[in-house]
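Good morning,

Attaching, inline, the backbone tokens for the sequence recovery test we're adding to the shared suite. The designed sequence is right after.
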């Protein structure tokens, strides 16, 4: 029996592989992620359903609102010995509700999450939104 290489030796220019296939390290159709939209498409659909394409969306940066924030847990350090804090003086725009608060503090801030207001009022303090309205008193129409 003659080997394939010896069979083609001297008789064929490309040894039955076509022009490009015989060059270098051979055909790369089985390497890496090659062929995921061709001969491996079912593998991609089954095992990698989110492999390609866009997912979700990003809002235009000009439409995004990013506040400088502070958590309830940091209020006691900011207030120190005082029982009132104006967070706008400290460069904080929004108060968030993460953490615990141990003493009653009256806070003035531009924005506050409902959870932050709940925790501060439970500790005996109050939250005042910077334009003068009390956060807890909403008028329903």
């Amino acid at each position: 029996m003659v080997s394939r290489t010896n069979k083609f030796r001297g008789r064929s220019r490309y040894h039955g592989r076509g022009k490009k296939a015989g060059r270098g390290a051979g055909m790369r159709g089985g390497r890496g992620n090659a062929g995921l939209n061709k001969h491996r498409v079912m593998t991609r659909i089954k095992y990698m359903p989110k492999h390609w394409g866009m997912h979700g969306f990003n809002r235009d940066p000009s439409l995004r609102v990013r506040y400088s924030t502070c958590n309830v847990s940091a209020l006691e350090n900011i207030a120190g010995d005082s029982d009132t804090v104006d967070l706008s003086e400290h460069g904080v725009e929004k108060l968030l509700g993460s953490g615990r608060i141990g003493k009653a503090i009256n806070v003035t801030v531009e924005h506050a999450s409902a959870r932050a207001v709940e925790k501060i009022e439970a500790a005996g303090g109050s939250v005042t939104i910077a334009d003068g309205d009390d956060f807890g008193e909403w008028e329903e129409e």
